[in-house]
Structures are given as C-alpha cells and as structure tokens.
C-alpha cells in the first residue's frame, strides 16, 4: 500500500569543503545535517518551528533515523532535499530524497520519526499535540487524505 503524502517541501544546498573528506566526497554523517536543515526550512515555511513547539510545551526528539546511500555527494555539488510528511497524527514521520540538482539523480534516501514529549513531565505523547495538527492542516501545501 502506497503511503499518503500530507505535505511536501524542497530545499537546495551546495556541498561545502568542510563537509567532505580527502576524496572530496561528503562524509556519511553529514547527510543527517542536510535532512535537519530541510526539515527546519519546512517548519519555518509552516510557521511552526522548534521554538513554537517548545512554547507549546513539547520537545520533539528523533526516535528513528534511516539512511540509504545510493551515490556520494561531492564538494561543490548542488543538491536538492525533497521531503514528504507521511504521518503527523501519532508522530512526525518524514521521508527524504537527496538528489543531484543538475541531473535529478538520486543520491540518498532516508526517513526520520519524531515524537512529541511533554517538557514539564517528560512523557511521550501517543498523539501529536492539537496545535501541531492544526498548523500542518493549515499549511498551504497540506494534502488531506482522501476518503476511502
């Protein structure tokens, strides 16, 4: 069964020298940083940043991260990180694809899962806060799930 995509977002970056090894290939650990930058840009576009999440009383730790390296990113390569929100009611699950901007070829795929944790009690929430669900549903790119 194909996942429903509730929202999509893309952002572009150029691989800087400090992210590559001696072979001019981006070090594997830096890919996570690009997922984070894309996710923060998306949240900024939604007007529901990590600052807002904290103000609402919740932390959103990553509880699962998956990456599959298809082809290496290289020094000065321009890339695009495409993200798709595939779950938002019980957690925030995002799928990512990093592509070469010039050719459109896939470089890396990944996903992250975040859960809401009440800051005052430290308790994990089994449903995301209503403020988060409202913000995503109000997002200009929100795609409601069709009625079955």
Output the number of helix runs: 3
Mean pLDDT: 96
Helical content (DSSP H or I, runs of 4+): 10-25%
> What Rg do the Cα atoms give?
16 Å
Unreliable stretches: none
Spatial strand arrangement across the major sheet: 1-4-5-6-3
* Helix/strand class: alpha+beta
Major sheet characteristics? 5 strands, antiparallel
Number of DSSP strands? Answer: 7
H and E order: EHHEEEEEEH
Strand percentage: 25-35%
Q: Compute the separation of the termini in Å.
A: 13 Å
Q: Which key phrases capture this entry?
A:
single chain; 148 residues; alpha+beta; EC 3.1.2.-; hydrolase
How would the blueprint of this fold be written?
Layout (H helix, E strand, L loop, with lengths): L6 E8 L16 H16 L3 H6 L2 E2 L2 E8 L8 E10 L4 E9 L5 E9 L2 E2 L11 H9 L10
Antiparallel strand pairs: 1-4, 2-7, 3-6, 4-5, 5-6
Description:
With 148 residues, the protein is of the alpha+beta class. The protein has 3 helices and 7 strands. The protein has helices at residues 31-46, 50-55, 130-138, and strands at 7-14, 58-59, 62-69, 78-87, 92-100, 106-114, 117-118. The strands form 2 sheets. A 5-stranded antiparallel beta sheet has the order 1-4-5-6-3, covered by helices on one side. A two-stranded antiparallel sheet has the order 2-7. A hairpin with a 5-residue loop joins β5 (92-100) and β6. The chain is globular and about 45 Å long. The two termini are 13 Å apart. The model has no long low-confidence stretch (mean pLDDT 96).
């Amino acid at each position: 069964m194909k996942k429903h995509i509730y929202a999509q977002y893309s952002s572009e970056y150029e691989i800087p020298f400090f992210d590559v090894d001696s072979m001019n290939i981006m070090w594997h650990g830096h890919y996570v940083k690009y997922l984070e930058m894309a996710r923060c840009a998306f949240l900024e576009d939604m007007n529901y940043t990590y600052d807002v999440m904290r103000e609402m009383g919740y932390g959103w730790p990553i509880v699962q991260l998956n990456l599959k390296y298809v082809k290496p990113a290289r020094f000065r390569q321009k890339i695009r990180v495409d993200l798709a929100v595939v779950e938002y009611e019980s957690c925030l699950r995002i799928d990512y694809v990093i592509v070469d901007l010039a050719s459109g070829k896939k470089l890396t795929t990944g996903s992250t899962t975040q859960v809401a944790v009440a800051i005052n009690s430290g308790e994990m929430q089994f449903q995301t806060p209503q403020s988060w669900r409202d913000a995503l549903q109000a997002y200009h790119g929100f795609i409601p799930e069709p009625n079955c």
